[in-house]
Write a structure and sequence with these properties.
Layout lengths: L9 E5 L4 H11 L3 E6 L19 H6 L4 E5 L4 H11 L8 E4 L8 H5 L6 E6 L9 H8 L20 H24 L3 E6 H11 L2 H8 L14 E6 L5 E6 L2 H11 L2 H11 L6 H6 L1 H12 L4 H10 L4 E3 L3 H7 L10 E6 L3 E6 L23 H7 L5 H9 L3 E2 L9
Amino acid sequence: MNYNLLGGIRVVESSAFIAAPLAGMALAQFGADVIRIDVPGGGIDYRRQPLSPAGRSLYWTGLNKHKRSVAIDVRKPQGRELVRALIAQEGSNGGVLLTNLGAPWLSHASLAQARPDLISCTIEGNSDGSTAVDYTVNCAVGYPALTGSGDPSEPVNNVLPAWDVACAYNAAFAIATALANRRATGQGAEIRLALSDLAFATIANLGLTAEVELLGAGRRSTGNYLYGAFGKDLTTLDGERFYVAAISMNQWRSLVAASGQESAIRALEEKLDFDFGREEDRFTAREPIAALLQAWSAVRTFDEVAAQLRAHSVCWGPYQTVAQAVAADPRLSTQNEVFNRVTTQGVGDHLAAGAATRIFGATRHPVVPAPLLGQHTDEVLLDVLKLSAAEVGRLHDEAIVAGADASGSQA
């Protein structure tokens, strides 16, 4: 067994930004032949920062590993027909489209005329077809009012594009499910996934909407406290900061034992007439509990605190920058089988992630670096569409397709 669970499946991806490219890469990491289509010179996300010293986008190369790249000028009718033909290619392994561009010529109805068992997945902003991105959706679901100071008049955004990421994996799952159904029934599927639907469904699933309807008020900010149980950031004698979480009873007992605060915690329970075996009581008493733990950590160095937390199997984590994580965290290194070192043309040697899922007993594929834009144009036209060398040459002459940029840069 290996990670080639989607081997033999061909997905044509016409996309930009995060959600669709990440969904395509997730499929490619499990063996699908994902062919990304871009216009010659790159689309709207091809030059997005950060850039390597040679000028390639680290954002674009990070989201397009394991894929093949074809450069076709879809602004021209013949370019569009090439893409449509690629999507509708006969055979059980083709007929899958992943897009978030909303182009009418890529509509499911028009493509299904040539391929009735077509599977298409279109990622949208809003379900009515209007534009939205992660940042415009996140501000509407209420979370920015719970971050920072918790003052709704001064909302603080989360820089993680969480809805894009969740949408990507939801789309990949939907495509894999549709593929399984097509194998069983021969039927295709039109899949549409709106970023805002995913976001609002998530806050409903997590109880935030029912909280408003049934309890009469929305959740208030609790700063860095964990909502509903006990969790808080603490600082050490040498100024380091870490976070502890005690959701389960075992986690709570471990934290109390590590801090040596058993007597003080017991006295606080008696004073408040609380039972800290209950999550809600730990949450209600979060401030005096945090004060006791902070008094413990404040007179110890980070190394001393870390040793105690590890010895008692506490659920905790240090605050660190990305640079600190790259330099010293074994979870973000080749000690972790998820990561390989790769050489990406125009970028250089760097750490790259494969599939985060571990399948025990399966052989993991090495990470395949992102291609150059247009690197596989001729290969796909010749081998997949079965065009002749003369036809491919004519398409190049007419600037309908383009090959790889040998420099690997975007200059």
